[in-house]
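Run folding on both entries below.
>entry_1
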Amino acid sequence: MSHAPENWPTLPAMMLARAAQWADRPLFRHWHGGAWRSLSWGDFALQTASVAAFLRARGIGPGDRVLLVSENRPEFPIADTAIMAIGAITVPTYTTNLPGDHAHILRDSGARAAVVSTRKLAEKVLEGAALAEGLDLLICIEEPPTAAGLTGHRWEEAIATPGDVAMLAAECASAPTDSLACLIYTSGTGGLPKGVMLPHRALLANRAGVVPLVKRLGIENQPYLSFLPLSHAYEHTVGGFLLPSAGLEVVYSRGADRLSHELAEITPAILTAVPRLFELLRARILAGLEKESPFKRRLFDRALALGLRRMDGPPLNLFQKLQDRVLDRLVRQKMRDRFGGKLRAMVSGGARLDPDLSGFFIALGLPVIQGYGQTEAGPVISVNLPWANRRHTVGPALRGVECRIAEDGEVLVRGDLVMTGYWNNPEATAAALQTLPGEDTPWLHTGDVGVIEDGYLRITDRKRDFIKTLGGDMVSPAKVECLLMAEPEIHQALVAGEGKPALVALLVPAEGMADKVADAVRRVNAKLPTIERIRHFSATEAFTIENGLLTPTMKVKRRAVIEARGAEVEGMYR
């Protein structure tokens, strides 16, 4: 079976075809042994074929699920591609998962094998496996721990296995595009994570929608700084397959604490992050500004003000335009240099990006754009563009994506990007994928509420997160939380009040700001109608991944927080 260029049936078919085309080009760059190391496309293909042969020799085949637990490093996409190439199904899992999380995913997915990066992570997986059944093969990049009834192997053994790249590529080129590529478990802001079944067609549909935009940016052969975990649906699709196949070199960041240095060193063309990172970057910029002279602070403030006016109006007059050009050289160019000087797009996803936050960066000359997606949609649904950026929206839907608003305001999505369903969960699948009267193809019911204005999608709320107060008023906690966290005194916020006479808030103060939180709440309340105002608040301990109150993508687990801090919430009503 032959396929036209860029019309591959599966992700491994695409990656191995690119490797044949670009054998000597750098594909991945990672920090190892105190220096940056590079892996070429050709070496990637050789190692992928070896790992595929190794897995097959140990009985892993079509339909088998394989857990993949690793930090961002080249072994992740090599294992990922090898698993898919033999018809098995990858189950990418967060390195921050606790043994109980692994137990749920192992039990639900029925994974037979696991590829794990470090011994410490492998021990967590084995703790989870002791509570589940079926795991009988472990491959560890480091020395694997021992466990009764489980065969452990080192990564070196896998990549030393003879493999046939050409034969594997030919096999992948004839694989069905509707076969499952991966099971990605949702972060679970409420309830247990569900396994989203994503076929190859869904991820390739995302690629078909995004690659024309990437090509227009003209960034082939330039670096992409991979910061989000590869187990996240966005990074798995975009950083794992989409951008590499479009010709970008993927550079794996060493973490948030190294990001500022890496931006200057790597000079990436694209960076993706969650809104929380942009909040931290803004805080660092403003903290550094406090140390500058009053004159430099005035220049910064003027550059910010003119940049915002250029976006939002009224139009700049001639004198302001001249000022703006001068400030672009004096202020914005320094800011662009601080971020590497070559950024064409800083993409925010995973949660709502406050327009004031994105406006701050755009006004200072940094191309922050917001996209929208869900794991259930491959995951990219829409994205703004640097040359047509409406920051109050999440951009127009990708090519090939149908998007409409239901009568109750819910955002509905249809197209090849949509999942097959939820693994072992027909009830949840039926609720999420519904066919409208007179139609044959189901729509994905996203659970988000929004509007479409001039082709641009704007998300206003989460449908199931509305709070109904005792007086019958429907209030969006996300709106109020966003305003609270925009205040420099507040690090995290959760608004509660279901069935209560008024709203209350659990607030995590920013460092050194505990005595100033009340001022921030007063400022926010002044912007809100009476029914949305915070009646009482409680300063609380931080929501973290470690205490189970934050997802790996930095989203607060609303239900878990209200359960864990229920006494604090109830205390505010006494």
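>entry_2
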Amino acid sequence: MTLRIAMAQLDMLVGDITKNTQAVIDAANQARDIEQADVIVFPELTLTGYPPEDLLLRPSLDGRVESALLKILDEVQGIYVVVGYPRRIDGDLFNCTGVIYEGTLLGEYAKQELPNFLVFDEKRYFSEGRDACIVDIKGVKFGLTICEDIWHPGPIAQAKEAGAELILNLNASPFHIEKMGQREALLHQRATEVSLPIVYVNYMGAQDELVYEGGSFVVNARGEKVSQAPWFEAGLYCVDVIVDESQPNKVMPVAGDISPALDVEASVYQAMVLGLRDYINKNRFKGIVLGLSGGIDSALSLAVAVDAIGADRVQAVMMPYTYTSSMSLEDAEEEANLLGVKYSVLPIEPMVSAFSDALAPEFAGFSKDTTEENLQARTRGVVLMAISNKKGLMVLTTGNKSEMAVGYATLYGDMVGGYSVLKDVFKTLVFKLCRYRNSLGYVIPERVISRPPSAELAPDQVDEDSLPSYDVLDEILHMYIEKDLSAEAILATKQFDRDTVYRVLRLVDVNEYKRRQAPTGVRITARGFGRDRRYPITNGWHIGD
């Protein structure tokens, strides 16, 4: 006998239970009628989307979920539906998956391992399940697990003991660099521990800072990957399972298509595109406006914006001032032309002069300093927000993680905006991503990539006048932010200049207040500048203690 399982790698909208439910029904009917599937498996918390956060505390949640389940029970026939949802049982809320067939809920499983670290805070909402759930589907005993359950040996071993012959694992596992390989190694380990095949179905789409890259896959009882759905593509992806009672492992997934692995640059770029696209479209913005400086960060941000939503929905604005070089003007225009976006040049010198004249009485007796530089950045922020208000376009900020980490950004200036695709991208990776994007089609002028970065807020200014080289800076930041190493541990790891390390760490700590006010953006590392990082703004911690 052969069973066909459809992995529903879909993009849901958090909170839109009605729309998500209809998507489940449509996908189930498609899997049955077109793919000839016996079973369709959806990701974790499909009906609410993931993460629903405090929507789980809304009084009407229970009724909405029950109505959704009744609708699926009533409208889907001829295929087994395995779907995730929140469910209140005896007063406690659980993260559940249920198996529905011919109007009946055949079984229901409650997630046992609740993640409560980094971006996850499931213990805020859910109670822990305790029991295995085994459902017989055409003579095969399916064991149900949900996401974090697979990262621990207990739930899958419990399912095996209860008689499972194949494990289904429903996931909403967000992207970060190297996560793809970690999942594959993990499933190899779990499958070999219990000698069972595992079907791993992952969410696809983006929710605020989190991106889910799909990549659903199947391993056999020896932990060998036999099927892999595409990365960053929604759809139904099927795997056939042979059931042979004469074999020691009677359930054997058939080898199918395996989508090739993506390198770091390709996966990060696609994550940024998907994150921005879903943010713009799910929040119903007409399009994007961004400041195009002629520098590398805004060039990469523009390319991502066009790839995400199309050139016809993107406007780039060059806002030159006295210190803007002719090279920057030329490069910004070339970038806009190469990508085919609406392009405007709005000189800010008259506006800066008006501000300076108005502030002259307040500034009397003070020498010029970074205040005047910040005034330029803040004027540009005013211009972009005015265009945003008038045209209904979202301002895309263009600062990278290296700059934001050390506060090399201006509040209410270049930090103004609704979203940032480079929020979690170190400067050294920005250079690599530009070269990657140009390998797909030339859109970023070579000299934008090769010339020294500059904010152009003062004569002959370059970033490394104020900062260490980005190679050094990013390595220190990686160890401090993502590895949580102390100053002395960093110095023991590599021969950095002591004063440089202490200065960088101090800059990171004192600029926490800025990062709290920065727009959300795509998370691409295991420790992003969003929900991952929760350091107190006001504190008396001393570096080096």
